[in-house]
Amino acid sequence: MNEQEQEILEKKKNRASRILSTVYNLPTIPIVIFEITKVIDNPSSSASQLGKIISQDQGLVTKILSVANSPLYGIPRRVSTIDFAIVILGFNHIKNIVIALSMMEAFKTAGSKKFGQKKYWYHSIVTAFAAKKIADDIGYPVSGEAFTGGLLHDLGIPVIYKYFNKDYLEIIEKVKNENISFLEAESNVLGWNHTEIARSLVERWNLPSILADVVQFHHKPSELEGDNRLAAIVHLADYMTVRLGIGDFDWDKGYIFDKEVINILNLGDEDYLEDFIESYRSIFTQQLETINF
Fold it and tell me: Could you tell me if 99 and 33 are in contact, meaning their C-beta atoms sit under 8 angstroms apart?
């Protein structure tokens, strides 16, 4: 990159930063999250107490029950009450779900032919469920964080649509006309890509740093220094949706699998990986049929 190109890129980054600062001025975490956190952090709290707070938001109740009844959780009986869902999922997992759903709701966009809101939500929730199951299957100790990371991994995309709409349309045209990836087109147009934007928002909401790492490195977990297992799990879940044709999310077309994930997650070799992915096909299909978001 020559000096002139570098200068143009810096101007784009500065402009994007100014616009993102208006995103930061949005209300921070809703009051319900503070109330839920207060209850969860109190060791004497009960599922019933937490359930009463969550029950104030029926939309949130519906989403949590949908999570608890996911085929990927494999719970043998139907979860019909929020108290039972809390017992099944656990206090901390409930907290992560509520925070992630609140973030997604904050950046929800109106319906548009240029942005498929329903496809985005389906892709996000399926990736979240898949990440949770992969984490359980390989023995990752904090599978609830895998769910949250999966849910938030593409958060930067609706933010680009909502706050950089002209740039969003230009990105789509670049991908179509120049045969480049969305990540490359985002960087060319904005100076930032959706993974970097998502990280800035996750940090703004004071979520665990491991989730900031996941949203930034979910396309290339091998580039993350230190413990990159969670980013690798979300990357594999994301890739699975493409590989198995689940969810039909345009932004992931041409998704490139990071082969280092095989070693990071101790999945043997590429043949074993293919069998592992294929074993998820039927349960993915069931999951898509039961999503109630």
Answer: yes
